[in-house]
Write a structure and sequence with these properties.
CATH architecture of the largest domain: 3-Layer(aba) Sandwich
Helix content: 40-55%
Protein name: Nephrocystin 3-like N-terminal domain-containing protein
Shape: globular
Number of domains: 5
Region (Disordered): 739-768
CATH class of the largest domain: Alpha Beta
Number of strands: 19
CATH superfamily of the largest domain: Nucleoside phosphorylase domain
Radius of gyration: 32 Å
Organism: Penicillium concentricum
ANK repeats: 889-921, 922-954, 988-1020, 1054-1086
Distance between the termini: 54 Å
Strand content: 5-15%
Strand order of the largest sheet: 5-10-9-6-11
GO biological process, one term: nucleoside metabolic process
Structural class: alpha/beta
Length: 1106
C-alpha cells in the first residue's frame, strides 16, 4: 500500500465532515482525492475520544469523524462536534453527511426516490433544520414542535447557490464520483449477504400507500404490490437533488401515520427525517446533506443505506468544489462563532454541558428503571391506590411531617403498583413548596442490573444530577478526579458523593420499591440507616417490601411504628374488587358471561372471599376461570380454588398438557437462570431446538405467532414491552490508533491499519426500538420454582445443575446451526438467540464447572473446536467487551478457559498437552488473559506448567502490564516472583510503572519501585511517569516518585515537562511539589498556564521572569 503523506500543521484542516455511521464515514473516505496520515503536530485533547480520517477533497483539506458506535442521536452528535473543536480549534465549517428518511409526495411534485439527495436549505426564518421532540413517535401521539435551528455558515450558503445555478445549466457530477468509487475500493462490489454502494435497482424501490403496513420479513416480498404508489418511470438511475427543510429529532420515525402527522405540523417544505442535526446546528456551523435510504415508514430496511451514504458523500464533495479557498480562510472559526453573543446560538459552553452530562451518565451507567415504572402504571387500574394517597400516614409523609414510610405486604398484594402510583402522584404534585425532587428505583428479580445497592446509588446520583444543577459540582469533582470517567469510584465514595449532592436539595423524595428483591440486602439496610442518620430536614424515604425478618428488625430500630404501614387485606380489597370487576367486564375470555350478571357476581363473590389481599392470587384464578366453558365447570372450579399462591402455581404446572409440558419446562428453566428477560424472538427459537433432530434447529419449525408462547405456561410468565438500544454489531477498536473501522469478517482483514472496508458490517440506525420480552410473571413464581416444595410431577433437574447442563446443550446445538463463513451481523439477523446463547452457555458452565456432567460438556466443546466453537468465539468474544465488533481471531481453548477462570478445565487441558505459551486472542496468550481477569489459581497453574512470564503480545504486550491493568496487587507479586521483567516495555503506557501510576494504584506503584522499576523511564504519550501523574493530579503517587528520585526536569512527551502538565491542568498542589523538588520553569511555562493562581505562583517562583 502506498505511503500516505502527513501535513505538518493540523490547522490546515479547516473543514469538519461528521458522519454518524461507519458506512457513512467509509463513503466519505472513499470520496477523498488524497488520504493523509495524522498531521505531525496534532495533539488530541485529553477528553477527545473521536477517531479521525484525514485527507483532501479538491482544494480543501478535510477531517472526517464519526459518532461513537451505537450512539447515533442528537446528544452524541453534539459531543462529537465538541470534541472535534477542542482538538481542532481552527475548523471553519462543517458538513453533516449521511442517510435519512425521505418524505416523498409524487402527487404534489415532490418525487423523492431512494438514493436521492436532500439538502437542508434555509427558508424564511428557519436555518434549514427544524428540531422536534419525538418522545415516542407512535402513530396515535402528537409531536411537540420545539424550535427552528441556526443558519449554516454564509460561505456554505454562497457555495450552495453557485452549485444550484450550475445545475440549471449542466448535470451534477455526482454520478461521476459514484462511478469512480469502485476503482478506489471494494465499494462497488456486492458480496454475499451485503449490499454494495451501487444503485440497488428500481425494482427494489417501492413506495406504498400510507395506510398500508409492512407484512413481516426483511424485505417487501410479502407485501401487496397493488398497494404501491404509481410513479413515473425515470429515464436514469442517477440521483436527483432536493432542497428544503429537514426535521431532526431523537426518535426514529418508522410508520407512515406518524410521518404524515409530523409533515402536517411542520408544513409541506419538510423533505427528510434524521437524528443528528439538531444536536449540531446551534453548536457547530454546518450544512446537512442526506441520502434517502427509506421513506420513514414501516417498510424501511437496510438495503439502500450504503448507496444513500455514497450519494450524499458525492454531493458533499461536489459542493466543496464551489467553496473558495480564500472565502474559507476569511470565514470565522467555528469556535469563535460559538463564543460570540447570539440569541439563537447557545455556544460551545452549552454544547459542552450537554456532552458532559452524557459523559457522566455513561460513567455511572445506571439501569433504566423507568421501564418498571411504566409497566406498573400500565397494569394499574385507574382509580386504584387512591385510598393510600388519601390516608393519614401518606398525607403526613407528603407534608413533611414524617420523614420515612415503610409499606410492607404479602407477596402479590400490589406493592409495586402502589409505588408507581405514589411516584406518579409526586411528579404531578406542584402545590407543596418548596417543590420537591422525586427520585425512584425499582429492584427487580428478573433483571440482574437492578438487584444491587451499587446500581441503586448510581441511579439516584444520575437522577439527582439531571434534576438539580446545584448538586452537579459534587459529582463533577469525583468524575474529574477519576480520569474524567475513565476509572470508577469505590462504593464508599459513591455513597459519600450522593450524600453531599443531597445537601444541595431542599426537599427530596426517594421511592425505593421491592427491597426484598435486592441481592445485597444487608448493605442496603446499612445504607438506608446512614441516610436516615444524615437527618437531612428535606429528605423523605418511601420504601416497599415484603415483611421479612431481616428488613423488619433493621427498620424497626430506625423509625417509629407510625412510619411502618402494613398492607392489610381490608386496605386493598376495594382495589382487588375493582380489578376483578374490570377483568370480568373487559376480558374477552369472560365475554360468554356478559349477559349473565348473576354468574359474574358469583365469580366476584367467591374470589373476594378467598383473595386475602393478594392481587396476584386473584389474577391467576381469573386466568384459569377463563377456560370454564359452562356454569358446571365454573362452579366446580370456584368450589376448589387453591388456598395459596404456591398451591396455585402447583396446579398451573400440573395442568399443563402433556403435549406442552416439555416446552413449558424448558421455557421456565431458561427464565429461572437467565440474568435478564428473554426477547420473544429468542424464546421462540429456544422452543424450536430439538436435540433429536439433525439439524437441531430449523427456523421453519418456529412458532408462526410468537406471542402465543405464553400459552405454554400462562400465568407463570408474562410479556412486557421495553425500549432498548438495538445490538450494534460494529465498533471502533479500543486498542488501536488506526482511523479505519474493522470488520469482523475474516475476509476483510488483509490490511487492518490502512484499508477502509466499504462492505463491512450492516449499519444500524442507532435508535431505540420497542421489543417484547418474556419473563417470569412474579418473584413468587421464581421462588416457588426454585423451592423444595415444587410438585413431584416436575422434573427435579429444573432447579439443579442438571438444568444448567440441559440449557447448555440447547445453546450448543443452536450455535452449531449458523454457517461458519457468516459474519456475526448475518448470524444475529438470522438467528435471534445466537448472541445470548453464546454468552449463556459459558455463564452456565462457569457457575457449575465442578459438576462432572458440566465438566465433560466444557471439555467436549473446547476439544471439538468445531462449528459451535467457531460461531461462539465469533459472536461472543469473552475477552472483548464489545463482542462481535472485532476481527475474529479464534484463540486456543486454554486461552478462553484461562480468561474465564475455569481452573478445572485449565488443569485438564494442560494435562492433555495444551501449549501453555500458544499465541492468540485479545490478550495474546493464556497467561495474560488470566492475569487481566485476576484468576489467581489459573495463573498459578499456568506458571507451574511453564508459562513464559515475559512473553510479548496482546493488548498490553507483556504480562506485567496486563496484571497492572487488572489492579490485582497479589498477582503482581506472584508474577514478579516468577521472573517477570519489571522494566519490560510496550503496551499503551510503555511500562508497567507508567500504567500503574496512570491508574492511580499506589500499592502497585510501591511494589514495582521496590522491585527495581526505572522511575525515569520515558513513555509514549506523556513522556515520563512523573509527567503522567502530574497531569492527572495524583498527589500521593507524585510524592512516591519524587521520593524514589524521579527527575523533575525530564523533557519530552505531550507537555514537555511534568511542571507544564500540572500547570495546564490546574493542579496547584502538584506544581508546588515539583517546584520544591527543583523543577525548572521559564516564561513559556508560566504564560501557557490558563490558571491565574498557578501563573502567579510560577511568576513568583522564577527569577527568570520579570
Amino acid at each position: 500500500m502506498a505511503i500516505m503523506k502527513a501535513l505538518d500543521n493540523s490547522d490546515l484542516y479547516t473543514i469538519g465532515w461528521i458522519a454518524a455511521l461507519p458506512i457513512e464515514r467509509a463513503a466519505a473516505t472513499g470520496m477523498l482525492d488524497e488520504r493523509h496520515s495524522t498531521p505531525l503536530d496534532f495533539v488530541q485533547h485529553i477528553s477527545d475520544m473521536n477517531a479521525y480520517t484525514w485527507g483532501r477533497m479538491g482544494r480543501h483539506n478535510v477531517v472526517i469523524v464519526s459518532l461513537p458506535a451505537g450512539l447515533y442521536r442528537t446528544a452524541a452528535a453534539g459531543n462529537t462536534a465538541s470534541n472535534l473543536l477542542s482538538s481542532l480549534p481552527h475548523t471553519r465549517i462543517g458538513l453533516l453527511v449521511g442517510i435519512g428518511g425521505g418524505i416523498t409526495r409524487p402527487a404534489d411534485g415532490r418525487d423523492i426516490r431512494l438514493g436521492d439527495i436532500v439538502v437542508s436549505q434555509p427558508q424564511g426564518t428557519t436555518g434549514g433544520v427544524i428540531q422536534y421532540d419525538l418522545k415516542k413517535a407512535l402513530s396515535d401521539q402528537k409531536q411537540e414542535r420545539k424550535d427552528f435551528l441556526s443558519m449554516p455558515p454564509q460561505v456554505l450558503l454562497q457555495a450552495l447557490g453557485s452549485l444550484q445555478a450550475e445545475h440549471e445549466l449542466e448535470d451534477s457530477i455526482v454520478p461521476k464520483f459514484l462511478s469512480a468509487m469502485p476503482r478506489k475500493s471494494r465499494a462497488g462490489n456486492s458480496t454475499k449477504g451485503k449490499n454494495g454502494y451501487s444503485h440497488q435497482g428500481i425494482e427494489n424501490d417501492k413506495l406504498f400507500r400510507s395506510s398500508y403496513t409492512h407484512i413481516g420479513g426483511h424485505d417487501c416480498l410479502g407485501c401487496d404490490s397493488t398497494e404501491e404508489v404509481e410513479r413515473e418511470i425515470r429515464d436514469t438511475t442517477d440521483p436527483k437533488i432536493h432542497y428544503g427543510i429537514i426535521a431532526s429529532g431523537n426518535t426514529l420515525i418508522k410508520d407512515a401515520a406518524t410521518r404524515d402527522k409530523v409533515v402536517e405540523d411542520v408544513g409541506e417544505e419538510c423533505i427528510c427525517f434524521e437524528m443528528e442535526a439538531d444536536g449540531l446546528m446551534n453548536h457547530f456551523p454546518c450544512l446537512v446533506i442526506r441520502g434517502v435510504c427509506d421513506y420513514a415508514d414501516s417498510h424501511k430496511n437496510d438495503r439502500w443505506q450504503r448507496y444513500a451514504s455514497a450519494t450524499a458523500a458525492a454531493y458533499g464533495k461536489e459542493l466543496l468544489s464551489y467553496v473558495p479557498v480564500r472565502g474559507l480562510q476569511e470565514t470565522q472559526k467555528a469556535l469563535d462563532v460559538l463564543n460570540s453573543p447570539s440569541d439563537t446560538i447557545t455556544g460551545l459552553d452549552g454544547l459542552k454541558r450537554s456532552s458532559h452530562f452524557n459523559a457522566i451518565e455513561k460513567w455511572l451507567s445506571p439501569p433504566d428503571t423507568s421501564t418498571n415504572l411504566n409497566e406498573a402504571l400500565e397494569k394499574r387500574l385507574e382509580g386504584t391506590g387512591s385510598w393510600f394517597l388519601e390516608s393519614e400516614a401518606f398525607q403526613e409523609w407528603e407534608k413533611r411531617e414524617r420523614p420515612f414510610l415503610w409499606v410492607h405486604g404479602i407477596p402479590g398484594c400490589g406493592k409495586t403498583i402502589l409505588s408507581a402510583t405514589t411516584i406518579e402522584h409526586l411528579n404531578q404534585t406542584a402545590s407543596i413548596e418548596p417543590s420537591p425532587i422525586t427520585l425512584d428505583f425499582f429492584f427487580d428479580f428478573s433483571d440482574s442490573d437492578k438487584q444491587s445497592l451499587k446500581k441503586l446509588v448510581r441511579s439516584l446520583i444520575a437522577q439527582l444530577y439531571s434534576r438539580c444543577p446545584d448538586s452537579q459540582a459534587e459529582a463533577d469533582r469525583v468524575f474529574s478526579s477519576h480520569n474524567d470517567g475513565n476509572r470508577q469510584p469505590t462504593e464508599k465514595l459513591q455513597f459519600e458523593t450522593f450524600s453531599r449532592m443531597l445537601n444541595h436539595v431542599k426537599v427530596a423524595n426517594i421511592v425505593i420499591d421491592a427491597l426484598d428483591e435486592c441481592e445485597t440486602r444487608k448493605d442496603l439496610l446499612l445504607w438506608i440507616e446512614s441516610l436516615i442518620n444524615l437527618k437531612h430536614p428535606g429528605l423523605h424515604l418511601f420504601i416497599t417490601s415484603r415483611k421479612e425478618e431481616e428488613i423488619e428488625s433493621a427498620l424497626q430500630d430506625l423509625v417509629n411504628n407510625e412510619s411502618i404501614i402494613p398492607l392489610q387485606e381490608d386496605l386493598v380489597n376495594d382495589d382487588i374488587r375493582a380489578y376483578v370487576h374490570h377483568r370480568l367486564r373487559d376480558d374477552r375470555g369472560f365475554e360468554r358471561w356478559s349477559s349473565h350478571p348473576n354468574v359474574r357476581s358469583m365469580i366476584e363473590s367467591e374470589l373476594m372471599q378467598k383473595a386475602n389481599g393478594m392481587f396476584r392470587w386473584v389474577a391467576c384464578q381469573l386466568d384459569a376461570l377463563q377456560d370454564c366453558l359452562n356454569v358446571d365447570l365454573l362452579e366446580k372450579s370456584l368450589q376448589s380454588l387453591p388456598k395459596t399462591l404456591e398451591e396455585t402455581y402447583g396446579r398451573i404446572l400440573a395442568g399443563i398438557s402433556e403435549s406442552h409440558r416439555e416446552y413449558a419446562l424448558r421455557l421456565l428453566q431458561f427464565l429461572i437462570y437467565s440474568d435478564r428477560p428473554l426477547a420473544i424472538r429468542e424464546a421462540v427459537d429456544i422452543m424450536a431446538v430439538d436435540l433429536s433432530r439433525d439439524p437441531c434447529f430449523d427456523p421453519a419449525r418456529s412458532m408462526p405467532n410468537p406471542r402465543e408462547i405464553v400459552r405454554f405456561c400462562s400465568s407463570l410468565v408474562s410479556l412486557v414491552k421495553r425500549n432498548i438500544q438495538p445490538t450494534i454489531s460494529y465498533s471502533y477498536s479500543n486498542y488501536t490508533t488506526t482511523d479505519s473501522w474493522i470488520s469482523d469478517d475474516p475476509e476483510d482483514s488483509d490490511d487492518l491499519e490502512e484499508s477502509v472496508d466499504l462492505d463491512g458490517p450492516e449499519a444500524s440506525d442507532g435508535q431505540q426500538e420497542e421489543v417484547e420480552e418474556l419473563q417470569l410473571a412474579h418473584l413468587s413464581v421464581q421462588q416457588y420454582l426454585k423451592s423444595s416444595r415444587i410438585q413431584s410431577s416436575v422434573p427435579t433437574h429444573i432447579i439443579d445443575a442438571g438444568a444448567l447442563f440441559q440449557d447448555g446443550l440447547i445453546c450448543l446445538a443452536y450455535l452449531s446451526r449458523p454457517g461458519e463463513h457468516q459474519t456475526s451481523e448475518q448470524i444475529r439477523a438470522e438467528f435471534s438467540f445466537a448472541h445470548y446463547s453464546a454468552q449463556l452457555w459459558i455463564d452456565n458452565a462457569t457457575a457449575t464447572e465442578t459438576d462432572k456432567m458440566v465438566e465433560q460438556s466444557i471439555m467436549g466443546f473446547f476439544l471439538s473446536t468445531g462449528q459451535a466453537y467457531k460461531v461462539w468465539s465469533k459472536l461472543w468474544r469473552p475477552d472483548h467487551a464489545k463482542s462481535g465488533s472485532y476481527l475474529v481471531i479464534t484463540a486456543a481453548p486454554l486461552y478462553y478457559a484461562s480468561f474465564l477462570g475455569l481452573k478445572h478445565t485449565v488443569q485438564l487441558l494442560l494435562e492433555l498437552g495444551a501449549d501453555v505459551n500458544a499465541q492468540g486472542g485479545q490478550f495474546g496468550n493464556a497467561l495474560q488473559a488470566a492475569l487481566w481477569k485476576g484468576h489467581t489459581e489459573a495463573v498459578q497453574l499456568l506458571l507451574a506448567a511453564g508459562a513464559d512470564a515475559n512473553a510479548v503480545g496482546g493488548t498490553y504486550e507483556n504480562s506485567l502490564q496486563a496484571v497492572v491493568w487488572s489492579r490485582h496487587k497479589n498477582i503482581v507479586q506472584l508474577l514478579l516472583g516468577a521472573g517477570a521483567d519489571v522494566n519490560a516495555t510496550g503496551g499503551l503506557y510503555k511500562s508497567a510503572l507508567h500504567a500503574s501510576a496512570a491508574l492511580n494504584h499506589k500499592g502497585i506503584v510501591q511494589l514495582l519501585l521496590a522491585a527495581g522499576a526505572d522511575v525515569n523511564i520515558i513513555g509514549v504519550y506523556h513522556g515520563s511517569v512523573l509527567q503522567d501523574t502530574s497531569a492527572y493530579g495524583y498527589k500521593s503517587i507524585v510524592q512516591l516518585l519524587l521520593a524514589a528520585d524521579a527527575d523533575a526536569n525530564t523533557i519530552g512527551g505531550r507537555y514537555r515537562s511534568a511542571l507544564m502538565a500540572a500547570s495546564v491542568y490546574g493542579k496547584k498542589d502538584i506544581v508546588q511539589l515539583l517546584l520544591t523538588a527543583g523543577a525548572d520553569i521559564d516564561a513559556y511555562t508560566a504564560l501557557r498556564s490558563g490558571h491565574k493562581d498557578i501563573k502567579q505562583l510560577l511568576l513568583q517562583a522564577s527569577d527568570k521572569i520579570i
